[in-house]
Structure formats: C-alpha cells, structure tokens
UniProtKB/TrEMBL annotation:
K(+) binds at T113, T114, G221, T318, N434, V435. It comes from Candidatus Phaeomarinibacter ectocarpi. This is Trk system potassium uptake protein. One of its GO terms (molecular function) is potassium:chloride symporter activity. Belongs to the TrkH potassium transport family. It comes from the Bacteria. InterPro entries: Cat_transpt, TrkH.
Length: 485
C-alpha cells in the first residue's frame, strides 16, 4: 500500500495561513490607531501564523500539480481546522482573557459563518477584536463559495456533482482552476461588501459598524458589533439594506458572475433561486399573519419588517436579530426551527441543507409515488428542467439521512453534557445548520453561548465544522475503507 502524500495539503494550508496572518495585521493597525494594547496580541499572532504558513509552503513548494481525490477529501477539513486553530490566537491572548475553549469556539463559529458567540459585552469590546470577528466570517464566506463550486462537485458530496464546472473535469486541474475562479468570486464578493458598507454608512451607521456589518451580512455570518445585534440600530432603512444583503449572499455566486458577463437569463431561470425566494416570501407572509393574529406590538410596517428580517436571517443562516423571536410564541419557534435546516442556495455563503437538495428530495419522492400508483409508467425526476441522475438522487438522500442522524446524535450528546432538552435541540440545530443563535432563554437571540459547559462548546464546534463542510468531507476521514483505498 502506497504511503499517503500530504505535501499538496501542507502547501495549500501554508498559503492560506499566510493569508490569515496578513489579515491579522488589519485589526492590529486599527487597535494601534486607537491606542488599544491588543495591537501587540494581533501582531504577535500574525507573526506566529505567518511563520508556520511560510514554513509549510516552502517545505512543499512545487508539489501540488496532481492532487488526487483522497488528498482533496483530506484537504478540506485540514484547511478549515488549521485556520480555526490559528484564528483563535487573538481571542485567547486578548484582554478578554478567554480560555482556549472559548477562543476556539469563537474562531470556529466565525470561519464557518455560524455566528454563535460566547463574548459578553460586545458594545465595550476592543475594536480590533470586533474587526477580527468580522474578518473571520468574511474570509470564511469566500472559502465556502470556492469550496462549493470547485472541490465538492468533484468529490460528489451530497449531490454537488450537479454543479460541476467544466474546468474541473480532472483532479489535477483542481488547484489552478480553483485559484482562477476564486479570483473572480473574490471580485464580486468585494464589490457586494463595499456597496453594502456604503449603503449602511449612508443610512446612518458609523463607518466602523458599517464595514463590520457589511462583511458579516454578505458572508451570512451574523457577527455584530453590538449585544443587541441589528436590533441596536432602530432604523427601518438599515434593516432593509441588511435584508437585501443577506439575500444577495444566499444566491449562487456563479450566476452573479454570468450576469456580470451579460448572461442574466440563467439567473432569472434558475429554479433554485425561484424556490428560495418563494419560500422566503411564504414564510414571511405566514409570520406577518401570525403576528397580526396574536396582536404583537408595533405598527403594520414594523411587523412586516421584523417578520421579513428574522425569517431571512434564520433561513439564510445569518443569525442577526432585531427582536427576540423566541418570545413570539409556539408557531414562530416551530417555523424558525424548520427554517434553520433549509438554508440558501448552493454556491453561496449560506448554510443548511441547501434549496437544491430540498428540490431533489421532493422531485424524487413525487416520482416514487407516481411509480407506486402507475407501476408500468416511466417517471423521471427533474431539476432545472434536466433529468436527475440516480447517482445524484442517491447522494442527496444519503446526505439528508446523515444530516438528520448527525443532528439527532449531537442533540443527544449535548443533553448528556448538561443542557436542558430545548437548549440541546436548538444548539444542535444551530451548529449543524450554521445559523448562530438558538432558541430558548439560554442560547436564544437575546442571550449567547457563554454559559454552556466546555464539553458542549467542543461538541458544538465539531457540529459547526461537520455542517459547514457538508458532512461527508469530515466523516469519511473516520472510515478505514477510505484510508485503505
């Protein structure tokens, strides 16, 4: 049996660690400008991270020409875990005096764009740390898009082969082609971020708050600079801008690239986009009717805005909040709990099951029911007006089963760690679905995760990683068959 060649993996990890180290310089400069002593922490963390990154890269330079499928499977979790470990350094050594468990949790939540936080008193936290949280989510958002359009289709994870790009027909094209596509995606990503930041600043946010919220809005991450989240900003215009930004971040970025190149029809015709927007509209309408029936406080416009904002925030996995929707009643709790799992479109920064998988599952089930009624008929499920191959249907069904199994297993483990049932269920859901706040008084929108046991934090961090990396890319590493193949 040939030895596993990890050199291409260390090379990519090294390059990305250098990028992370350079990113740490930005909050260091900002803290230095406002005379906050944490600039030394960021500078030291940047030096350590860059040192390891340069070492890994130089030791393996020139060895990434032909990455195999097995190496690609190992690459994805290796990259994310490495970035999380080093991304936690500024949290661990800052004036917040966080334990490494809390620092790791915050870093994992940031890079996976989950948005769950353990930091209390965000309104008084040093600006460099607030900027670092936002940068982690912004960088994680780019990484998620590139992974979704380049790596996962090759690995055929959860039906992602539906979105295979012609440039990635063979494994040895993965790295150079992904690098080219990443550049184009980053350009679009930066444009959206700048436009959102300018709009928020023009609507009344400070420049610092606008930049931070723009980064975490487009990344659908949900980290805010305020304890009250977006509810701190009592401005309808700000709320509507963030709603638009969250939706923009949840649509396929490949379609944006095509639209910018003059091919807008695929964007308008994509069934995934239409179903996503339709579900958002239906859920928002249901919540508005429910609010009116219960006689909740606020004007009619405010009820529409709060319903739309929180529905979009939960379904896209952003995790912002304008109110404590956990106190809206049982129907709201049930609806938001369901929306957590659905998520946005494939190839976006959003999370959850993804809309296309819901469509494939529904089409496959309908086709199966028709075959039961008409045994001699031929019924083929379709997605985007194309027949769904059996391999894709099987892959999506397997993903769905494993998704539910992981959620149930994580909820059970969190219960054993000491959380009460509702907190354990919502914490498991928000981890696997990468949403952010959970439900209930302990981890709901008006609280955070600082009070849960350390064991639960490590379990949730694992859930965030598994959910963000589409389950199979992490769980397959525990299979002996994978390593023997």
């Amino acid at each position: 049996m040939a030895l596993f060649d990890a050199r291409p993996i260390f090379l990519v990890v090294g390059i990305l660690l250098v990028t992370l180290g350079i990113a740490m310089v930005l909050p260091a400069l900002y803290d230095a400008a406002v005379s906050n002593p944490d600039w030394r922490v960021f500078l030291a963390s940047a030096v350590v991270t860059t040192f390891f990154g340069v070492t890994f890269a130089l030791m393996n330079w020139g060895s990434a020409g032909d990455m195999t499928l097995k190496q690609a499977f190992v690459l994805v979790p290796a990259v994310w875990l490495s970035l999380v470990i080093f991304g936690a350094l500024p949290f661990a050594f800052s004036e917040l005096n966080l334990s490494y468990t809390d620092a790791f949790f915050e870093s994992m939540s940031g890079l996976t764009t989950t948005g769950s936080t353990i930091i209390v008193g965000l309104d008084t936290v040093a600006p460099g740390l607030l900027l670092w949280r936002s940068l982690l989510q912004w960088l994680g958002g780019i990484g998620i898009i590139v992974m979704a359009v380049s790596i996962l289709p090759i690995l055929q994870v959860g039906g992602m082969q539906l979105f295979k790009v012609e440039a990635f027909d063979t494994p040895d094209k993965v790295l150079p082609s992904a690098a080219g596509l990443a550049g184009t995606i980053t350009t679009v990503y930066v444009i959206f971020t700048v436009v959102t930041a300018f709009a928020l600043w023009a609507a009344g946010m400070s420049f610092f708050d606008g930049i931070n919220h723009a980064m975490t809005t487009i990344a659908t991450g949900g980290y805010s600079t305020r304890d009250a989240s977006v509810g701190h900003f009592d401005s309808a215009l700000i709320h509507y801008i963030i709603i638009a930004g969250m939706i923009a971040g949840s649509l396929p970025f490949v379609l944006y690239i095509q639209a910018f190149r003059g091919k807008a029809m695929p964007f308008l015709q994509d069934t995934q986009v239409r179903v996503f927007l339709s579900l958002l509209g239906i859920a928002t309408l249901a919540m508005i009717v429910y609010q009116m029936a219960r006689g909740l406080e606020g004007t009619f416009e405010a009820q529409i805005r709060y319903a739309a904002f929180n529905v979009v925030s939960v379904m896209t996995g952003t995790g912002y909040a304008t109110q404590d929707y956990g106190a809206w009643g049982p129907f709201a709790i049930a609806l938001f709990f369901t929306l957590m799992f659905i998520g946005g479109c494939s190839g976006s920064t959003s999370c959850g099951l993804k809309i296309f998988r819901v469509q494939v599952i529904a089409a496959t089930c309908v086709s199966h029911l028709r075959r039961m009624i008409y045994p001699h008929g031929i019924f083929i499920p379709h997605y985007n007006r194309r027949a769904i191959p059996e391999s894709v249907s099987a892959s999506v069904m397997s993903f769905f089963f494993l998704y539910i199994a992981c959620f149930g297993g994580l909820a059970l483990l969190l219960t054993f760690s000491g959380l009460e049932p509702l907190t354990a269920l919502s914490s498991a859901a928000t981890s696997i679905a990468n949403v952010g706040p959970g439900l209930g008084p302990e981890v709901g929108p008006s609280a955070n995760f600082s009070g849960i046991p350390d064991t639960a934090k490590w379990l949730m961090a694992l859930g965030m990683l598994i959910g963000r990396l589409e389950l199979f890319t992490v769980l397959i590493l525990f299979s002996r068959i994978f390593w023997r193949s």
